[in-house]
Amino acid sequence: LLHDCVKLDVRLTEMLQGLAAAPGVGAAARLLGVHERSLERWVGRGTGRPPGFWQALARSRRCARALPTGVPLVELALAQGYADQAHMSCEFRRWFGLTPAALRRSPALQQLVQQAGFN
Predict the structure, then answer these.
(1) Alpha carbon of 81 to those of 10, 62, 113: distances in Å?
(2) Taking the model in full, what pTM does it have?
């Protein structure tokens, strides 16, 4: 329903996708061919949130989507760019309100994470 009611600027959509794909804001800016400060301004004006917010959300969603694979949490954390498993757990609590292990144990929550959204 939200998708039908919200229309993002094409350039802003491209910037959010670049942020989701890149390992850092600077890398996203290079990927998109813009200055980092321009990316910060554009995304900030368009969403009310800084680029780092969107990158952290995308990384957490990618990681949550990988939970059903059964990969050990420490390996999953490192593969997604977290410093360690504790860092990943802290971010999961921030975004999802529970730990990766708790999310992994809940099929209903896993279905929600698998749904389309910003990634």
Answers:
(1) 28, 11, 19
(2) 0.82
Taking only the tens place, the pLDDT of each residue in 7-54 is: 668 889 899 999 998 988 999 999 999 999 999 999 999 999 999 999
What tens digit of pLDDT does each residue of 97-118 get?
A: 999 999 999 888 888 888 776 5
Q: What is the DSSP string of 49-113?
A: S-HHHHHHHHHHHHHHHHGGG---HHHHHHHTT-SSHHHHHHHHHHHHSS-HHHHHH-HHHHHHH
Helix (H) or strand (E) holding 27: helix 25-32
Tokens coding 69? 């694979």
For the chain, report the end-to-end CA distance as a whole number of angstroms. 18
d(CA 114, CA 64): 8
